[in-house]
From TrEMBL:
Pfam family, one: SBP_bac_1
Organism: Streptomyces resistomycificus
Keyword Signal listed: yes
Domain of life: Bacteria
Record-given protein name: Sugar ABC transporter substrate-binding protein
PROSITE patterns linked to this entry: PROKAR_LIPOPROTEIN
Region ranges (Disordered): 33-55
């Protein structure tokens, strides 16, 4: 079996701890779900706490940063890079990358032109970059910032073989379901806390004349996130860790149970906007915006995805906390799931400028710039809650930091990219096929296991 995370065992949290975190998140989201939006219109950048990190003067230096981000996410990150330019005098160019980013970087390395820094969305990708001898270890200044600002768990997932390569600049709470407040009000629907209650809420929304769910099935990663939340809650954290490392097979009965549960939504006639065909043609941004446009008759009443959906909600002209509300992914088993994701800065060309950028991204200063713009969470524990633009996101940030090391990282992101991070292949493709035919549970398991065995090397 190929290991994709040398420190995965350190992230094992007790089921009771996950329950407490999920409960606290549920309480905080409920408390701020009635429109107590404090400063949603703020678009200012800069830090609230002043300059906390010392950076070298880099006049005349230039560097490239590659990431798969697009749209508002890319635009907001460019403002962070602009702040770095302002402080150092360096010139930074953003290089749009394509999934899987390891393949993109491979072509750049082969051509002799790798970017100086890459934002890698998977621990598995960090390990691959280290194994290929592309990645360079973090220097002393970056390590100092990381140790001061990050919990041990967030440091560890950026390590390979005990050495620090990644700075997890961006985090995600992937255990959320967003809903159109007007649709819920018109239907008389309530926020569910369990999977059975979610199905009841969905039927209530359906009976009111609105399709319950929007699913961005054109992008397979959204489907892996659905699966992971159901699996973590239903099978439990120990099984989750085992499946993430391929210590148990995808033909395990626990996977069958999770797919059977998913089919209660994906296989329910008229529960998914556009049906399976429509969902498979809907990308993630559209899955969000179509939930919050169309007045009281949007294409769907709910959409599952992480806190970063806020960017698309705002683009749809909706206000977070008023038009768009949110509840934690409901408990399927004993405890509600707490799944996190993130993007790590990894140095590919070791230079003073690249190390300075990694140091900046590990500091609160960089995170505050992007936090103010919305649609972003930082695992940096020294970013003030007040940096986030609305009460909903402030509560999410508080819950993320309060969780400390008690979280489960996105399972597909821990896998080799051939299985967990490649469009049209592996887990992404198998779950897209399952969305199309939710009755084929056994066939889906067999395909998942065959692809996983090949990717993990046995």
């Amino acid at each position: 079996m190929r290991s994709t995370s040398s420190t995965n065992g350190k992230h094992r949290a007790a089921r009771t701890a996950a329950t407490l975190i999920a409960g606290a998140l549920a309480l905080s989201l409920t408390a701020c779900g009635s429109g107590d939006d404090k400063s949603d219109d703020s678009n200012e950048t800069g830090t609230e706490t002043g300059t906390t990190v010392t950076l070298p003067k880099l006049d005349g230096k230039s560097l490239e940063v590659a990431a798969v981000w697009s749209g508002a996410e890319q635009a907001n990150f460019k403002k962070v890079l602009a702040e770095f330019e302002k402080r150092t005098g360096a010139k930074v160019t953003f290089v749009p990358a394509q999934d899987p980013i390891i393949n993109f970087l491979g072509s750049k390395v082969a051509g002799g032109q790798p970017p100086d820094v890459a934002m890698l969305p998977q621990p598995g990708a960090i390990k691959q970059a280290v194994d290929k001898k592309w990645a360079k270890p973090l220097g002393a200044e970056a390590l100092k910032e990381l140790r001061e600002n990050y919990s041990q768990g967030w440091q560890d997932i950026g390590k390979v073989g005990g050495e620090q390569y990644g700075v997890y600049y961006k985090a995600a709470n992937k255990s959320l379901i967003w809903y159109n407040a007007t649709v819920f009000e018109n239907a008389g629907a309530t926020e569910p806390k369990t999977w059975d209650e979610l199905l009841t809420t969905a039927q209530t929304v359906y009976d009111s004349g609105v399709t319950p769910f929007s699913v961005g099935g054109a992008e397979g990663w959204t489907l892996t996130d659905w699966f992971e939340n159901v699996y973590l809650s239903q099978a439990g954290p120990e099984k989750y860790d085992q499946l993430a490392k391929h210590e148990i097979k995808w033909t395990d009965p626990s996977v069958k149970d999770a797919l059977t549960t998913l089919a209660q939504v994906w296989g329910k006639k008229d529960y998914v906007a556009g049906g399976a065909t429509g969902a498979l043609q809907t990308d993630f941004p559209a899955s969000v915006t179509q939930t919050f446009t169309g007045g009281d008759q949007p294409k769907a009443g709910m959409v599952y995805e992480g806190d970063f959906a806020q960017v698309n909600i705002v683009q749809a002209g909706a206000k977070v906390g008023t038009d768009a509300k949110v509840f934690p992914f409901p408990a399927v088993g004993d405890a509600a799931p707490v799944v996190s994701g993130g993007d790590a800065a990894v140095i590919l060309k070791d230079s003073e400028a690249a190390q300075a950028l990694a140091t900046f991204l590990a500091s609160p200063d960089a995170a505050v710039v992007q936090a103010k713009l919305g649609g972003y969470l930082s695992p940096n524990k020294n970013v003030p809650e007040s940096a986030y633009p609305n009460a909903v996101q402030q509560k999410m940030a508080k819950a993320l930091i309060a969780a400390g090391d008690d979280f489960r990282f996105d399972m597909s992101d821990q896998a080799p990219q051939a299985f967990g991070g490649t469009p049209g292949k592996g887990e992404w493709k198998a779950l897209q096929d399952f969305l199309k035919n939710p009755k084929d549970i056994a066939g889906t398991q067999q395909k998942l296991e065959a692809d996983a065995a090949a990717a993990y090397g046995g």
